[in-house]
């Protein structure tokens, strides 16, 4: 588990004991953690400053620091079938790294990035990368602060498609903060600060289904699958300025059907009580693990399939 102080913790699901076996290298908010699936023995972490660290999972030692990004890295995932890592940053770039030696292999930025800006609280921001999915054929699907989804070929760095997926959110404008593959593997999901969850066809990129379970925003890193049950945490009221407050909730619903028949409405339910914040949600085997802030205190909650 990544922490705001830069530490990496481990959680024993049976004893629920949290330990800190990794040395502290990150000096600030730790945004993303991922296991390198090609070996299963490497851990990747990224932080607020733009640093990526490649770890040996068994010895808990740092192997390489991957430097090149100039801003926060909220998205970092393995490249399927290769010993490589893909990272997306608030600096607007997507970079591919060699997972063995830590060297950068390629970097690409949207050609129209300078023309797409976000105006927030009197400041202007260029488009970022805030969420990313890499599929088995090497396509990189990325979204950011403009609400636009872009699809790239990881081999040629060619832009394959782009479209406006999410629109103005009531709190901080339009941000795509989660992109995830559906268990069926032919559909993917995007979530945003407009409170919507959108299901897209992976082949045609056509919109299959839109759900709005939250008034304001689905939170980044607060979404997971448990079978075909989708779980996400988000902001559901409390005023536009109140990003963290007692108006956040966790919702769950069955998305086995990627489309709905005419006249059929989505049914989702709330999991647990209202909370102040939901920093992380993971699916680990048959259980879902959540970090939830209630009454000012962060706690780890474990939910089983029977409850979900």
UniProtKB/TrEMBL annotation:
InterPro entries reported in the protein's UniProt record: WD40/YVTN_repeat-like_dom_sf (IPR015943), WD40_PAC1 (IPR020472), WD40_repeat_CS (IPR019775), WD40_repeat_dom_sf (IPR036322), WD40_rpt (IPR001680)
GO process annotations (BP): microtubule depolymerization
Source organism, top-level taxon: Eukaryota
Signal sequence annotation: none
A cellular component term, taken from the record's GO annotations: katanin complex
Pfam families: WD40
UniProt keyword Isomerase present: no
Record SMART domains: WD40
UniProt keyword annotations, A-Z: Repeat, WD repeat
Organism, as annotated: Tothia fuscella
UniProt-recorded name of the protein: WD40 repeat-like protein
WD repeats: 66-107, 176-210
């Amino acid at each position: 588990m990544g922490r705001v102080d830069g530490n990496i913790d481990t959680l024993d699901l049976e004893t629920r004991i949290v330990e800190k076996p990794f040395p502290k290298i990150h000096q600030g908010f730790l945004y993303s953690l991922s296991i390198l699936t090609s070996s299963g023995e490497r851990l990747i972490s990224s932080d607020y400053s733009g640093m990526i660290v490649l770890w040996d999972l068994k010895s808990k030692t740092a192997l390489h620091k991957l430097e090149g990004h100039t801003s926060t890295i909220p998205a970092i995932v393995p490249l399927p079938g290769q010993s490589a890592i893909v990272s997306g940053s608030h600096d607007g770039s997507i970079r591919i790294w060699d997972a063995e030696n830590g060297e950068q292999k390629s970097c690409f930025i949207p050609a129209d990035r300078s023309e797409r800006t976000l105006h927030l609280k009197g400041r202007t921001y260029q488009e970022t990368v805030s969420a990313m999915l890499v599929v088995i054929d090497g396509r990189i699907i990325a979204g950011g602060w403009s609400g636009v989804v872009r699809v790239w070929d990881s081999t040629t760095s060619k832009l394959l498609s782009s479209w406006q997926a999410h629109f103005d959110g009531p709190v901080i404008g339009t941000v795509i903060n989660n992109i995830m593959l559906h268990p069926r593997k032919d559909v993917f999901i995007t979530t945003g600060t407009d409170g919507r969850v959108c299901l897209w066809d992976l082949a045609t990129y056509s919109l299959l289904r839109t759900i709005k379970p939250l008034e304001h925003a689905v939170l980044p890193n607060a979404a997971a699958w448990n079978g075909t049950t989708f779980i996400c945490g988000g902001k559901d009221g409390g005023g536009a300025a109140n990003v963290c407050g007692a108006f956040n909730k966790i919702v769950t619903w069955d998305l086995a059907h990627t489309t709905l028949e005419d006249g059929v409405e989505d049914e989702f339910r709330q999991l647990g009580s209202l909370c102040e914040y939901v920093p992380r949600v993971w699916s680990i085997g048959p259980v879902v693990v959540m970090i939830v802030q209630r009454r000012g205190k962060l706690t780890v909650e474990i939910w089983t399939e029977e409850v979900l």
